Amino acid sequence: MLNKNYNLNPDQAGELRRLVIDNRENREKISEQNFISKLHTITVLSGKGGVGKSNIAASLGFALADFGRKTVLIDADLGLANLDILCGVRNARYNIAHLIEGSRTLNEILVHFKTSPRAQSLNGSVSLLPGGYGIKEIADLDDYAMEKLFTVLSELEINTDYIIMDAGAGIHKGALSFAYASEITLLITTPEPTSIRDAYGVIKSLGAAAWQENNNPASGLMLVVNMAASSREAQEVAERIKLASIQFLGNSPMYLGYVLKDDAIERSVKNCRIFYRAEPDANASICIRNLAGELLRIFEGIEPEHEHLNQNNSNSQKKQPKKTKQKGISSFFGRLAEYIIRSKN
User: How many CA atoms lie within 13 A of 252 on its CB side?
Assistant: First the structure.
């Protein structure tokens, strides 16, 4: 549910409908050309701040690179962007605002990170599209800016495997619109009662968008319990949220996994580093690799051996990929426009 005070005038609504129609036509043309996008979109959000959402989003990007995937991180919390600082990028020269206004190209704005030797050997990579402090939410952009952003980000379609969007905390329209538009959404919570309550609030606000489509695991919302003392505690937290969802909402999200509480995280944050990069053998980093492996299983049907990252994952057993939401930038922006329109009707 979006803020009812946010209104589109008839011209704006008409333009968004045109974007939806154009998006569908583009998808049909792409299908005719036998081009299948390999790009997957993931939004990471939380019910409250301070639960480690951004750290998990960034760490997943580097973990997927260690599996040979090309990942782009997007700081989607535009008004309070901080992913660049967390990644050790001080005073990013350009950000998404320059992209929208057309003063800089995507290649000029993207920040490319050095990855691990393993990622380099497998051609994995991580790049960041920094957000901007105090600029509008993407859901609040006018039609020209939205279409401009869509056009430019379409450049990622061919050479990117995963886009991970670090959305803002809470149930404001910006975060919820990203959750609706992405193929899947990772909802980060902790064992703290307030975090659990707010996570349930996000699930309730998302409504049908939180559930898997036709039992398709590569859709809907997935729980990740951060700062857990043990796997058992994480499972108990997830069960509490799922039980409440079933009781009051009639359905429940999938539980993806957990990240253990680890001193390595605090040390890394103080030094403006991603813990997964700073201490890859820490317990929290192993958990991140497990989560990345689960995402690969869900999206690509493979079974990476999580605990043997020094071995080539070419021995992973291939499984038949499951049907997913339509992939790529075109599909993402089509769902985004549909969600904004639907919320106003």
Answer: 14
Give the Cα separation of 234 and 62 in Å (integer).
23
How far apart are alpha carbons 234 and 257 in whole angstroms?
A: 8
**Domains identified in the chain and CATH numbers:** 10-307+316-344 (3.40.50.300)
Residues in CB range of 135: below 8 A, 6 or more apart: 78, 79, 96, 97
b/e sequence 123-146, b meaning 16+ C-beta within 10 Å: ebbbbbbbbbeebebbbbbebebb
Helix, coil or strand: residue 228: strand
DSSP per residue over 16-47, as a string?
HHHHHHHHHHHHHHHHHTT-----EEEEEEES
Return the bridge partners of 169, or none.
46
Q: Take residue 69 and report the two structure tokens written for it.
A: 């995937």
Quote the DSSP letter at residue 142.
-
DSSP string for residues in 9-20: -HHHHHHHHHHH
C-alpha distance from residue 21 to each of 9, 25, 63, 256 (Å): 19, 6, 36, 34
Nearest to 128 by CA among 51, 43, 57: 57
120 within 8 A of 126, measured Cβ to Cβ:
no
- How many residues can be counted in the chain? 345
Indicate yes or no: pTM above 0.70. yes
**Rounded distance, CA 9 to CA 108, Å?**
34
pLDDT digits (tens, 9 = 90+) for 142-188: 667 777 777 788 888 888 999 999 987 777 676 777 888 888 999 99
Could you report the per-residue pLDDT of 191-205, keeping only the tens digit for each? 999 999 999 998 988
Q: The dihedral of CA 60, 278, 106, 102: what is its sign?
A: positive
Separation between Cα atoms, residue 65 and residue 122, nearest integer Å: 8
What is the spatial distance between Cα 75 and Cα 213, in angstroms, rounded to a whole number? 27
- Rounded CA gap, 243 and 43, in Å? 23
The backbone region for 190, taken as left when phi is positive above 0, alpha when psi lies in -120 to 50, beta otherwise, is beta
**Measured distance CA(237)–CA(231) in Å, rounded:** 10
